[in-house]
Design goal:
Length: 233
């Protein structure tokens, strides 16, 4: 078993201790720091497997810490899970676009947070493989990139190129919240024709075509969309 180290950057020591206790019980090695400056320093020499990052920090703010971590080669690959106060969806959106992997809103359920940590670590292990795959199969859905074909329970779905790209991107990132901007970047990549830039319209069309399976794409209020991670259920 590979030892997994989690760095908690959080100035509230009650929250940090509660997290440490629960993560250690799950077999993780835990380090805690109260400041972003210190967190950045600690990760320079020995990057952890994952960082739990409070957004409301004294000194350098959490979002800036996230940006610096993702800009630096030594830490750009380290998954970041943000911890945010209620009503800070706009910060969440910025953080996700900076490259954070997930977030929880305070007050959070510790069990749920531990489950998120595990899911993000598993995703980080699987991602390089998933990217290369031409065929993505999720439950009754199969997405074939080479043939540009989507099948639902064996039946071919008629999707536009934009819908195809959106669905493929979502399905390749199960459990991950993707912002509208991230989805828009994906569908406009290399595109020279004018397309409808309203992501919500395309998502609605995909859901309609998915029929009873529409629930696989969840709306995350104020943030974006998420493809249901079927391996978690
Ligand atoms: Ca705080």
């Amino acid at each position: 078993v590979v030892e997994r180290t989690i760095l908690i950057i959080e100035d509230d020591s009650d929250i940090a201790d509660l997290l440490r206790h629960n993560l250690e019980r799950e077999g993780y090695k835990v380090a805690i720091t109260r400041s972003g400056e210190n967190g950045l320093e600690m990760t320079r020499s020995s990057p952890p497997s994952l960082i739990l990052l409070d957004l409301g920090l004294p000194g350098i703010q959490g979002l800036e810490v996230c940006r610096l971590l993702k800009d630096r080669e030594e830490t750009s690959w380290v998954p970041v899970v943000m911890m945010t106060a209620r009503g800070e969806e706009s910060d969440v959106v910025v953080g996700l676009e900076l490259g954070a992997d997930d977030y929880v809103t305070k007050p959070f359920n510790v069990r749920e947070l531990v489950a998120r940590v595990k899911a993000v670590l598993r995703r980080a292990r699987m991602e390089p493989r998933r990217e290369r795959r031409a065929l993505v199969e999720v439950g009754p859905l199969s997405i074939d990139s080479e043939r540009h074909e989507v099948r639902l329970q064996g039946e071919q779905l008629e999707l536009t190129l934009t819908e195809f790209r959106l669905l493929r991107f979502l399905a390749a990132n199960p459990g991950r919240v993707l912002t509208r901007q991230q989805l828009l970047n994906e569908i406009t990549k290399g595109v020279t024709y004018i397309l409808d830039r309203n992501v919500d319209v395309h998502i609605r069309a995909i859901r309609r075509k998915l029929g009873t399976y529409r629930g696989v794409i969840t709306t995350v209020r104020g943030v974006g969309y998420k493809f249901h991670d079927l391996t978690l259920t």
